[in-house]
Automatic annotation (TrEMBL), chain A:
Residues 19-411 form the ABC-2 type transporter transmembrane domain. This is ABC transporter permease. It is a multi-pass membrane protein. Coiled coil: none annotated. It comes from Ornithinibacillus xuwenensis. The chain crosses the membrane at residues 20-41, 221-240, 261-289, 301-326, 338-360, 392-414. The keyword Membrane applies.
From TrEMBL, chain B:
This is ABC transporter ATP-binding protein. It holds the Pfam family ABC_tran. Keywords: ATP-binding, Nucleotide-binding. It comes from the Bacteria. InterPro entries: AAA+_ATPase, ABC_transporter-like_ATP-bd, ABC_transporter-like_CS, P-loop_NTPase. GO terms for molecular function: ATP binding. PROSITE patterns: ABC_TRANSPORTER_1, ABC_TRANSPORTER_2.
TrEMBL record, chain C:
It comes from Ornithinibacillus xuwenensis. The chain crosses the membrane at residues 173-194, 215-238, 250-275, 282-302, 339-361. It holds the Pfam family ABC2_membrane_3. Its main location: membrane. It is a multi-pass membrane protein. This is ABC transporter permease. Residues 18-358 form the ABC-2 type transporter transmembrane domain. InterPro entries: ABC-2_transporter_component, ABC2_TM. Keywords: Cell membrane, Membrane, Transmembrane, Transmembrane helix. PANTHER family: MEMBRANE COMPONENT OF ABC TRANSPORTER YHHJ-RELATED, MULTIDRUG ABC TRANSPORTER PERMEASE YBHS-RELATED. It is found in: Cell membrane.
């Protein structure tokens, strides 16, 4: 048996290019993903944004109040004095100055740059990609909207947000302006109802942490997700190597020696186990040193991680054995590899290694726990947060279950002598 | 028609083949003999233009073809050592493909395929997937694939490796037939002495990347012609007797095992009477006595100090 | 060249299952993910006050006004347990006029939920204040109806059209997954070069009068045709069987796909140049491929990735250019002249990678 294990490990050792790929790629990926998503999706996302907003103001602000008064008297048949009073009141809520105040507020300054432009120029700049979107204030907007507010009618004109195409930046700009108009409208209601002096008790909000657990970060997610994902790839790599052994007729020789088939599989399993273990630990340790993923964690935390990685590696090793048996049975190495890839992609997806599983339909999420990578993700997530043994017992049992199941399956479908492809 | 001059090849500074000079006459069947790793495959890879020689020339009908391998490839058929065929295609489909790449089409292609199949005796099984074939049959498809364009020169690189004696005989017969009936020039590589002895008019012996001997079988054997091997079976063994035999003039080497003696001695000396005389002195009877001619195996042993299958 | 295509096809027609499996996978992946994106994220809410039921019902209604999230009432124990086990990212504990978020992570989804919840609670606090000041419950409906047609309105438009360009994430994902699977298929096919090399068939072809260019073209064309077949079949199924809006200009989409496939075949050829055996190829290729759509932003809204280094890396791979062109054509009705730059970039990547790849392969064999 020792000789089988030694052979498989040596085969890997000799092919150092592959070995290095297997070890370095996941780390590279963790770094790249962190890079890609850092800041983008975190709490202070806006700090990294640099949005360019063009404002095209076609509304002639100077005569507004006079025209509003005119309109109120003509169309709303309001008396002169009443109209004057209403205009006076509305002037406090004149939307355009408020909008500019908002756009130039300190809160927005750091990530939104406002350009006041003519329409033609703005459109050109959007087409050139210099500006994300255009906010157009149409002529007569102030009069129309204030009139609508006072008369309780639907306004004739509205603000226009123009974009070339829908992008992330555009959505943020639109949401931002929309949020502001919502706020403004609410002020109008309050004024309309005449309760502007009501005392508002704003909610306190905030977070309540679960237990005393540590919070779980995106970097940590990437680290454990990529670690488990690449361990899956390793299983298929090992199985594919069997193709090489068939081609070089080594496998026939091994069969001829009358060795117990289990020995051949155990060789594969042990070498996969060693490599998977090394690989995942590599990902953890390097991510930690490069990205400071697990800062200030105790020795017992790391021991727990090693424990989970160990049983995950066992499950992966057994999966490699199943793949090996399949590749001994399937005549076409491409077909075998195609199957491995699809299985891994499926496992990876439903196990939550490619994307956080909550974006999947719930029935798929449930399947996710039934994959080795999915279980290990649950175990590691819990361990990172709570460091409680009780929280990792179930997923660990799952992993051991996978190990046993896969081992049995691999032996069961291992080809009888003379039946290999 | 084919000649190599001081052909050498180094891989990363390591010399794989050194100063190989060999020639093939039209219609000849020539063997290239040597143990594994002697440089045979590299030599024929250079001849077949797959590997560029580091130095040296390859001449086809007197023209150096290293820079223009197309001419060589046209007249050459190569049967590689590995099974260079698609296992997932039938024998027929394989040959069709290899015929295609030699620009054969239509009836001509069909005719070539059927001929090649007939030569290797696989006409009945042509529609079956190569995957289902025995090792010997795969080897035969491997040969057939090199025959489609009717090459003038056929190079076979260990075409019988790893197959049963029956298939082996079949392949040897095929090669002999190609040579004798079709007049195809053959360069046959092997580390099996018997095959080369059986098939080839002339042979080259390679070891450590160099040709260490060349000639017809007779010529090679005459390398050993200054010696005779005499085998004697005795009624009993006596150390003193052996010591005495060694002192006989002309005896070069004596090997003893149990009651057998193998004596290598200069050709032409009269050992018999000396031996009879000595045996009498020690009260030993000679049960059996015969003189052996050397084999190619002995020649190889003599030249390299090791056997072919080391 | 034709002979190589013929032989590869003859081999593959015995294993049609393989291609069918991949076609099915591209459709399945799209259905799973695109569906998942559209469905609102479920967020658990619960209350631990005395009149929990009443409070829960009140807030559920208010919180569900927006369809991005689906707020569901669960028991406090289950909510805490699920958050703890990572089954859900966040739960909301609601009180009479206040809330607490229960979260165990700093994942982005948490802050999205937080923004929404905060807005709803603040608005409700203001309304509550008005009601209390007026002492009149009818004010609520007054406010609601007022806000349905507010005086200040904003609408989104296209640059030169009334309609907002109708971007659709599911359709983008459809293309992303189709291309992802296409990359796998073409990789497996390009790998036949290494296959035939280790089998010695490659040498046989070299010895034949067939030109080197013919040999390479054979493998490239075959991989190209098979992959293009997969893409076209998948798109046709989506368009005509499942009635997805894959775009009106199918021919232009297929043209982009064709450029992409060629370009990606070249990249696969480049990887082939680095490996000795088909098995090595299998060890490297499948682990590299899933990264490409990630860094190319194929799973995200255009413009989500802003990091210049990452953008540069993404530009090296054909997928980013293909997705850009596809998005323009499918959602924004771009014509051939608008995507010509993307096509050109893919061609350029293709030619460079192919040159390097073949060079490496040739250097290996001599």
């Amino acid at each position: 048996m020792g000789s089988f294990i030694k052979k498989d490990l040596l085969l890997f050792w000799r092919d150092r290019k592959e070995l290095i790929t297997v070890l370095v790629l996941p780390i590279l990926l963790v770094v790249v993903l962190n890079f890609a998503f850092a800041g983008l999706l975190s709490d202070n996302a806006n700090e990294n944004l640099d949005l360019q907003l063009a404002v095209v103001n076609q509304d002639n602000e100077l005569e507004t109040l006079a025209r509003l008064k005119e309109k109120l008297m003509e169309e709303g048949s309001v008396s002169n004095s009443e109209a004057e009073k209403m205009v006076e009141q509305a002037s406090q809520l004149s939307p355009i100055p408020l909008l500019f105040n908002y756009l130039e507020s300190d809160e927005l300054k750091s990530w939104v740059t406002v350009h006041e432009l003519e329409e033609g120029e703005a459109v050109k700049k959007v087409e050139d990609g210099e500006i994300d979107g255009i906010l157009t204030i149409p002529s007569g907007f102030t009069v129309d909207s204030l009139y609508a507010a006072l008369a309780g009618e639907v306004p004739a004109t509205s603000l226009k947000f123009k974009m070339e195409r829908e992008t992330n930046n555009n959505s943020i700009l639109f949401d931002m302006i929309h949020g502001f108009t919502d706020h403004l409208n609410f002020q109008f209601v309050v004024q309309e109802i005449g309760a502007s002096d009501a005392e508002v008790f704003l909610p306190e909000g905030g977070f309540e942490k679960v237990g005393t657990g540590e919070s779980f970060t995106l970097s940590q997610y990437f680290t454990i997700a990529m670690g488990a994902l690449f361990a899956l790839f390793l299983a298929s790599t090992v199985a594919t190597k069997t193709g090489l052994e068939i081609r070089q007729k080594v496998f026939y020789r091994i069969q001829l020696t009358n060795s117990n088939p289990i020995l051949f599989l155990i060789g594969k399993m042990v070498s996969t186990f060693c490599l998977a273990w090394l690989q995942i630990m590599f990902v953890f340790v390097f991510s930690h040193f490069i990205l400071d993923v697990f800062s200030d964690r105790t020795t017992s935390f790391w021991l727990g991680v090693i424990g989970i990685v160990t049983i995950l590696s066992l499950a992966i090793a057994a999966l490699a054995a199943v793949f090996t048996s399949i590749s001994l049975r399937i005549t076409n190495i491409d077909a075998a590899n195609g199957i491995f890839m699809l299985v891994i992609l499926f496992f990876g997806v439903v196990g939550g290694n490619f994307v956080p599983i909550y974006i999947l339909p719930s029935w798929l999420q449930k399947i996710g726990e039934w994959t080795p990578n999915g279980s290990s993700l649950v175990a590691l997530t819990n361990w990172i947060q709570y460091e409680e043994l009780s929280s990792i017992v179930t997923p660990s049992l799952f992993l051991i279950g996978f190990f046993l199941l896969f081992t049995v399956v691999s032996v069961a479908i291992y080809p009888k002598r003379g039946k290999t492809s | 028609m084919l000649e190599t001059i001081n052909l050498s090849k180094s891989f990363k500074g390591k010399k794989a083949v050194q100063d190989v000079n060999l020639y093939l006459d039209s219609g000849e069947s020539v063997g290239l003999l040597g143990p594994n790793g002697a440089g045979k495959s590299t030599t024929i890879s250079m001849i077949s233009s797959l590997v560029k020689p580091t130095t040296g020339e390859i001449k086809l009908n007197g023209v150096n073809i290293i820079q223009k391998p197309e001419q060589m490839r046209k007249v050459l058929g190569v049967v590689p050592q590995e099974l260079a065929i698609y296992e997932d295609l039938s024998a027929y489909e394989n040959l069709k493909f290899f015929g295609f790449i030699y620009n054969l089409k239509g009836k001509e292609l069909e005719k070539s395929i059927q001929q090649a199949l007939e030569i290797v005796g696989l006409t009945d099984r042509q529609k079956d997937l190569v995957r289902t074939f025995s090792g010997g049959m795969k080897r035969r498809v491997n040969i057939a694939a090199a025959l489609l364009h009717r090459p003038e020169i056929l190079i076979l690189d260990e075409p019988t490796v790893g197959i049963d004696p029956q298939s082996r005989n079949h392949i040897l017969e095929t090669v002999r037939m190609l040579n004798e009936l079709n007049g195809t020039t053959i360069l046959y590589t092997s580390h099996y002495m018997e095959e080369v002895e059986q098939l080839c008019d002339r042979l080259y012996v390679m070891d450590h990347g160099e040709i260490i001997a060349a000639g017809t079988k007779g010529e090679l054997l005459s390398i050993l012609s200054t010696e005779d091997t005499i085998k004697v079976e005795l009624s009993k063994m006596d150390e003193m007797f052996i010591e005495q035999v060694k002192t006989i003039e002309g005896v070069r080497k004596v090997e003893a095992s149990q009651v057998n003696l193998k004596i290598i001695a200069k050709k032409g000396i009269n050992l018999v009477s000396e031996l009879v005389h000595l045996a009498d002195q020690y009260h030993i009877q000679m049960v059996n006595f015969h003189t052996e001619s050397p084999s190619l195996e002995d020649v190889f042993l003599h030249l390299t100090g090791r056997t072919l299958r080391d | 060249m034709k002979s190589v295509i013929w032989a590869q096809f003859a081999k593959d027609k015995r294993n049609p299952l393989f291609l069918l499996l991949f076609i099915a996978a591209s459709i399945l992946a799209t259905l799973l993910f695109a569906g998942g994106i559209q469905a609102p994220t479920t967020v658990a809410i619960f209350s631990e006050e005395a009149n929990a039921q009443e409070i829960e019902a009140k807030w559920q209604k208010l919180l569900n006004a927006n369809d991005t999230f689906q707020f569901e009432i669960v028991s406090p124990e289950k909510a805490r347990e699920d958050v703890r086990n990572g089954k859900i990212d966040v739960a909301v504990k609601v009180m009479e006029m206040d809330y607490r978020l229960i979260a165990a992570s700093e994942l982005p989804s948490v802050s999205f939920v937080q923004q929404h919840v905060e807005k709803v609670f603040q608005r409700e606090a203001q309304i509550r204040a008005i009601i209390d000041a007026n002492g009149n419950e009818h004010v609520r409906s007054e406010i609601t109806s007022y806000l349905e047609n507010p005086p200040i309105q904003i609408e989104a438009q296209g640059l030169d059209s009334e309609e907002v360009p109708n971007y659709n994430m599911s359709i983008q994902l459809l293309y992303a997954f189709t291309f992802l699977i296409a990359m796998f298929i073409l990789g497996l096919k390009v790998n036949h070069v290494t296959h035939d090399k280790v089998a010695g068939i490659w040498n046989r072809m070299i010895l034949s009068p067939m030109r080197k260019t013919g040999m390479y073209c054979g493998y490239i064309c075959y991989s190209f045709l098979i992959t293009l077949f997969q893409v076209i079949v998948v798109l046709l199924i989506f368009k005509y069987v499942m009635n997805y809006e894959v775009g009106d200009q199918l021919w232009l989409v297929i043209l982009i796909a064709a450029f992409f496939i060629f370009s990606m075949i070249s990249v696969a050829m480049l990887i082939t140049g680095f490996v000795k055996t088909p098995e090595q190829f299998y060890a490297i290729y499948p682990s590299v491929i899933p990264l490409i759509p990630l860094i190319s932003g194929a799973y995200m809204m255009p413009g989500t990735i802003t990091n210049p280094v990452l953008l540069f890396v993404a530009d090296i791979f054909p997928l980013s250019h293909a997705m850009e062109a596809i998005v323009s054509v499918v959602f924004f009705h771009a014509g051939l002249s608008d995507v010509i730059m993307s096509l050109f970039m893919m061609l350029l990547i293709g030619v460079v990678a192919m040159g390097l790849g073949i060079n490496l392969i040739e250097r290996r064999s001599s």
